[in-house]
């Protein structure tokens, strides 16, 4: 029986697959824990280090456009709203989104998916165009060869976004792994390096009403992780994408986690109606989020040509799950 080396975050809805409680129909999954998981993103797109791997969706779209032989199945294991993801330095004077124009804003790398979503909502809802902000980065892009737009500049050597925001050298920055919640490139102990005393405030203050309104108007609950596999495997094993999809769906059913745990974000609980699955798998229930992400990635010069939704995924049977 063929063994497939896989890495992904063991959430409540994926843990049964990681632990071997759920398996593939015609193969064995060899789960490899990667900390932080973002390290695996880089290893997959640069070295095809796994047979199956979780990727940031923007990284995946860029890698596929660059001809890297990986392909996805419509399993999206993480989602997150982003109205609370912008922190401002106390002396910046930033009070409304338009105040970001002409300012320096930190983001780990320009292609970070959180950055794509944040720039998209700023552009769509507040007419804050990304090319009128100077984006400061302190890490490299995942996909080799990508050249960021001219308004994207690296932090000075030895500087981190965390330290630059604290010192007021940048006016604002994104939160968490996309910005000031870590320092340097992904490695062991990455999150432990984050400081808890950032002298900053959230641009939107209380983001929950904005998130509810955003979801009600757009139907978009931003996706943050997609499951991919080496494209050559789909030729050797044509049924593998369908089997893998079925395995992730079974793991979600096996998890039996309560709704709040599945969402994994307190602020989302009020935005997603009780009747809706907060982590649906399949193309159709994710079409709004996928279409928005492709549009944003194209507008922000991460993609030259927007792919069709069907072309993003390996051929397979993907009923809503």
Automatic annotation (TrEMBL):
Full protein name: ABC transporter substrate-binding protein
SsuA/THI5-like domain ranges (all copies): 50-109
The organism's place on the tree of life at top rank: Bacteria
């Amino acid at each position: 029986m063929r063994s497939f080396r896989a890495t992904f975050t063991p959430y409540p809805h994926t843990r049964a697959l990681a632990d071997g409680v759920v398996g593939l129909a015609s193969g064995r999954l060899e789960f490899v824990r990667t900390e932080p998981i973002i390290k695996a993103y880089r290893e997959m797109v640069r070295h095809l280090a796994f047979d199956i791997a979780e990727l940031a969706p923007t990284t995946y779209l860029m890698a596929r456009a660059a001809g890297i032989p990986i392909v996805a199945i419509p399993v999206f294991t993480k989602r997150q709203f982003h109205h609370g993801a912008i922190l401002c330095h106390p002396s910046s004077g930033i009070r409304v989104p338009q105040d970001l124009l002409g300012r320096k804003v930190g983001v780990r790398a320009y292609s970070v998916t959180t950055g794509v979503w944040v720039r998209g909502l700023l552009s769509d809802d507040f007419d804050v165009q990304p090319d009128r902000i100077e984006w400061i980065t302190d890490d490299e892009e995942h996909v080799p060869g990508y050249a960021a737009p001219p308004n994207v500049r690296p932090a000075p050597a030895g500087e981190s976004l965390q330290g630059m925001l604290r010192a007021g050298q940048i006016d604002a920055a994104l939160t968490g792994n996309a910005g000031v919640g870590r320092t340097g490139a992904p490695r062991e102990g990455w999150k432990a390096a984050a400081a808890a005393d950032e002298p900053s405030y959230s641009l939107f203050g209380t983001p929950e009403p904005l998130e509810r309104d955003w979801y009600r108007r757009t139907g978009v609950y931003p996706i943050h992780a997609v499951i991919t596999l080496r494209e050559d495997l789909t030729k050797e094993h044509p049924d593998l994408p369908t089997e893998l999809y079925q395995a992730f769906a079974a793991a979600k059913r096996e998890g039996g986690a309560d709704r709040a745990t599945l969402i994994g974000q307190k602020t989302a609980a009020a935005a997603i109606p009780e009747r809706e699955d907060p982590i649906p798998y399949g193309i159709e229930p994710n079409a709004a989020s996928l279409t928005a992400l492709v549009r944003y990635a194209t507008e922000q010069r991460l993609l030259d040509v927007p792919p069709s939704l069907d072309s993003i995924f390996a051929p397979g049977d993907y009923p809503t799950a």
